[in-house]
């Protein structure tokens, strides 16, 4: 068994909360999170004092801050993260390894993503344009046909964060800041470090900046009533993670608050007859290795049309290659036992183990295999390959639980796109690009920024002819003359 | 004529139901018996359960491969998750008499389908003179003993396996059950223990440790000491369930219970291991080691490789139980344990098991959905 089983104490990491951009260190009570057998994280207790300080924060703090100032500040933060010498980045990389069990390479990759996302100023403006209709709409009244429309932040957004994909935390926070909301980042017990690292990097750059003061990071256990109250009194809730976590957040969300769910999804790949086996397999290997399949865009199953053997050989090589490029997360004893059990379950259900690498595994599912619900996917780079005579057969396995369908060769998609859309998938991408959310693309069927703003319309006066009318809008006169149908075309 | 329809008594039944004390035989003798019993069970399930036979075939293991005790680890085993999602039967469905579930603290529960033979074998173990219990129940009979069950009666236990198993203790002595509906009648239980201690030589309090803990708190809260002396015995099983945060280690538990009930000796507190997928009770001896009878092969697997571990090394606890006829009871369990072969400190030879802890479930699968929802065809 592992070292901590043998009595060696797990390393400890003491972290603060951040409340309104300030470090909050509890004078007495503490919470201890044990992340598997890797380490213990000590956080302040979520007390009435913490909650009252959060309740006292100005929900309109960013309302009048120009978007360009917000983006400029984020850009400066991102440039720090892009530097391999930046101490917060180095600490984050060390903590991802210590707490989440990431390999150094995978942790570096996460830090790179933070740098890239925070410095994507042009993309941020594009995002506002695409999702809200105008990049000016949060700063001023924007003409929208017969009205002027101004978007405002909903106020305080509570993010129920996942423990599996650090970049989700980054994206969630950036969306809220771009829409001028203040955020409460409720971290998951599995990843208490990403949100804190982001908030601390804001403080380190400028503790008094409104963007810094718009960020709060805390943790409370699921059954904590103060935490539940905080969610109930939020203007918006963004919930990531398991079905239970998302459902619980939804139940606690206020009736008038906006709710943005990023619940459990799975993703799959279609490999058509004309695909280059090497290229397609490498794409699957990438999409199944990133985050060790813990992300909703992670490919779990691959439907392969045509000759299987060349693809399997290449997939085996590709998964091994990715074990070098992005070594798998260090798993606890219990996680490994769980993984072995789930893989054994695949075998009992008829899956044939084709190959294993140091962590990755490939199962081939013959037509008579019972790999259907409620069999659990093992994850951790376990790829289920389903040979099909025609990719149309794959459609029977597609439902609203599928987020991303990755395809190769690219031209195959024209044939299946409409049918996949009818079956309620969210994204269709080229194999190997599952984690790249393109500008203009959607996320779980939504344009999420729209959920984080409230629109106010300042509508045209009577003297301005409504569309379809050729005279001023005088409703009394229209009623008196009973001419409604005559004047409105 | 009368014997024409009677099947000859099988070896497994003669061991389970017989009065032979296997603990009087050497470790090697028990191992040979274990080989014979488990191999016979393996052959039965290969012949009777197509799903299991197909699995074993894919694993490349046949009955012929099981020639020595060391070969028993080759028998293909199933993770308990299999029983959470599908029916795995080695008898015709119409022979199933009860479908048991785990008491389960969360998530999907295992469902184990048991036929009459499988259940009878379990009942056959539940007798005070069974070597399974060592000498813990010596001298217990229905005239001098009573059982206070901190659980539902057999008729109220429904299909929850643990409650059913504990209620089977009524085969040994009169039993009163104190869970009615969802209420635990603690005051009544304490009052009845006091009364029984006056009337009976032996009084057994049985239940999961968290309810025994509640029972002790009730005794302390009542203000009147309960003098258990050498007449009161506590028999626990089933773990702490959704009160895991209140778990006491064994030493602390014995101390709290021993003091609250004024027991003469902490050895009067014993624990039993069982799970719904397993058809046998593993009962603790005086040295707090759980003895494994010769019809069960217990060993541990390395959690990383799933390869069998040598004696004494902590790993994932696995069982092959020959008493289960209706389903292949060849299990990769959900606990971390050590299994030892040899002569226990209590003096009894054989295999013993020491539970280390429960395996923690999967963590942080996060937004990657691991179970596909049912596909609705257009």
Automatic annotation (TrEMBL), chain A:
InterPro entries attached to this UniProt entry: Ald_DH/histidinol_DH, Ald_DH_C, Ald_DH_N, CoA_reduct_LuxC
Pathway, per record: Lipid metabolism; fatty acid reduction for biolumincescence
Gene3D superfamilies: Aldehyde Dehydrogenase, Chain A, domain 1 (3.40.605.10), Aldehyde Dehydrogenase, Chain A, domain 2 (3.40.309.10)
Pfam families reported for this sequence: LuxC (PF05893)
Catalytic activity field: a long-chain fatty aldehyde + NADP(+) + CoA = a long-chain fatty acyl-CoA + NADPH + H(+)
Identification of the protein by name: Acyl-CoA reductase
Sorted UniProt keywords: Luminescence, NADP, Oxidoreductase
Function: LuxC is the fatty acid reductase enzyme responsible for synthesis of the aldehyde substrate for the luminescent reaction catalyzed by luciferase.
Presence of keyword NADP: yes
From TrEMBL, chain B:
Native species: Micromonospora trifolii
Xref: Pfam families: LuxE
Protein name in the entry: Acyl-protein synthetase LuxE domain-containing protein
InterPro entries per UniProt: ANL_N_sf, LuxE
Domain Acyl-protein synthetase LuxE span(s) in chain numbering: 4-372
């Amino acid at each position: 068994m592992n070292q901590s089983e043998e009595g060696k104490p797990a390393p400890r990491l003491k972290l603060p909360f951040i409340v309104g951009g300030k470090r909050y260190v509890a004078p007495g009570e503490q919470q201890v999170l044990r992340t598997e057998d890797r380490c213990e994280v000590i956080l302040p207790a979520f007390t009435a004092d913490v909650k009252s300080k959060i309740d006292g924060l100005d929900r309109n703090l960013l309302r009048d801050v120009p978007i360009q100032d917000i983006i400029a500040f984020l850009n400066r933060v991102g440039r720090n993260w892009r530097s391999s010498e930046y101490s917060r980045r180095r600490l984050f990389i060390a903590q991802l390894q210590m707490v989440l069990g990431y390999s150094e390479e995978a942790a570096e990759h996460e830090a790179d993503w933070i740098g890239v996302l925070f410095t994507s100023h042009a993309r941020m403006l594009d995002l506002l344009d695409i999702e809200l209709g105008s990049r000016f709409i949060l700063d001023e009244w924007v003409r929208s046909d017969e009205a002027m429309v101004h978007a405002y932040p909903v106020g305080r957004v509570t993010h129920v964060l996942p423990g599996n994909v650090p970049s989700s935390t980054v994206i969630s926070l950036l969306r809220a800041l771009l829409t001028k909301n203040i955020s409460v980042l409720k971290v998951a017990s599995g990843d208490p470090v990403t949100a804190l690292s982001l908030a601390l990097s804001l403080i380190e750059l400028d503790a008094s900046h409104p963007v810094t003061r718009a960020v709060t990071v805390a943790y409370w256990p699921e059954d904590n009533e103060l935490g539940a109250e905080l969610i109930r009194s939020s203007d918006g809730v963004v919930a990531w993670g398991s079905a239970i976590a998302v459902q619980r957040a939804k139940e606690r969300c206020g009736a008038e608050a906006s709710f943005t769910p990023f619940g459990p999804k799975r993703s799959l790949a279609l490999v058509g007859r004309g695909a280059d086996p090497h290229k397609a397999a490498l794409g699957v290997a990438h999409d199944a290795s990133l985050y060790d399949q813990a992300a909703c865009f992670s490919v779990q199953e691959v439907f392969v049309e045509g000759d299987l053997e060349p693809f399997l050989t290449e997939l085996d090589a590709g998964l091994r290659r990715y074990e070098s490029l992005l070594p798998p997360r260090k798993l606890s004893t219990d996680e490994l036992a769980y993984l072995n059990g789930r893989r054994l379950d695949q075998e009992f259900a008829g899956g044939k183990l084709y190959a294993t690498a140091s962590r990755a595994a490939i199962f081939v599912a013959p037509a008579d295999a019972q790999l259907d619900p409620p069999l659990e996917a093992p994850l951790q780079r376990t790829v289920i390959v389903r040979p099909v005579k025609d990719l149309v057969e794959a459609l029977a396995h597609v439902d609203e639980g599928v987020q991303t369908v990755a395809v190769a060769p690219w031209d195959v998609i024209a044939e299946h796109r409409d049918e996949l859309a009818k079956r309620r998938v969210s994204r269709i991408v080229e194999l190997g690009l599952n984690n790249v959310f393109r500008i203009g693309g959607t996320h779980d069927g939504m344009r999420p920024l729209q959920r984080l703003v409230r629109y106010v319309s300042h509508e045209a006066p009577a003297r301005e002819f409504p569309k379809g009318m050729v005279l001023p809008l005088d409703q009394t006169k229209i009623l008196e003359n009973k001419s409604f149908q005559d004047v409105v075309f | 004529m009368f014997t024409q329809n009677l099947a000859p008594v099988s070896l497994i039944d003669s061991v389970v139901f017989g009065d032979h004390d296997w603990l009087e035989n050497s470790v090697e003798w028990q191992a040979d018996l274990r080989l014979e019993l488990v191999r016979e069970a393996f052959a039965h399930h290969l012949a009777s359960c197509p799903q299991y036979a197909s699995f074993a075939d894919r694993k490349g293991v046949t009955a012929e491969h099981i020639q020595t005790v060391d070969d028993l680890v080759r028998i293909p085993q199933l993770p308990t998750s299999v029983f959470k999602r599908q029916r795995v039967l080695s008898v015709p469905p119409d022979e199933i008499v009860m479908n048991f579930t785990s008491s389960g603290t969360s998530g999907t529960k295992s469902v184990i389908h048991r036929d009459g033979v499988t259940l009878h074998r379990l009942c056959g173990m539940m007798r005070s003179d069974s070597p399974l219990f060592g000498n813990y129940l010596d001298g217990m009979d229905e005239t001098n003993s009573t059982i206070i069950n901190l659980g539902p009666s057999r008729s109220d236990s429904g299909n929850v396996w643990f409650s059913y198993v504990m209620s089977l203790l009524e085969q040994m002595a009169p039993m009163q059950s104190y869970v009615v509906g969802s209420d635990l009648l603690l005051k009544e239980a304490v009052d009845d223990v006091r009364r029984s201690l006056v009337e009976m030589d032996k009084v057994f309090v049985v239940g999961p440790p968290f309810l025994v803990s509640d029972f002790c708190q009730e005794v302390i809260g009542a203000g009147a000491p309960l003098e258990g002396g050498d007449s009161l015995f506590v028999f626990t099983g089933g773990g702490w369930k959704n009160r895991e945060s209140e778990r006491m280690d064994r030493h602390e538990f014995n101390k709290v219970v021993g003091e609250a009930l004024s027991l003469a000796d902490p050895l009067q507190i014993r624990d039993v291991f069982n799970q719904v997928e397993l058809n046998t009770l593993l009962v603790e001896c005086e040295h707090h080691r759980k003895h494994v009878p010769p019809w069960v092969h217990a060993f541990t697997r390395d959690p990383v490789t799933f390869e069998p571990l040598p004696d004494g090394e902590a790993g994932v606890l696995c069982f092959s139980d020959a008493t289960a006829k209706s389903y292949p009871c060849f299990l990769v369990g959900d606990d971390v344990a050590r299994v030892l072969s040899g002569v226990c400190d209590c003096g009894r030879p054989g295999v013993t098991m020491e539970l280390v802890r429960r395996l923690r479930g999967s963590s942080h699968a996060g937004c990657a959905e691991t179970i596909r929802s049912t596909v609705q065809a257009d």
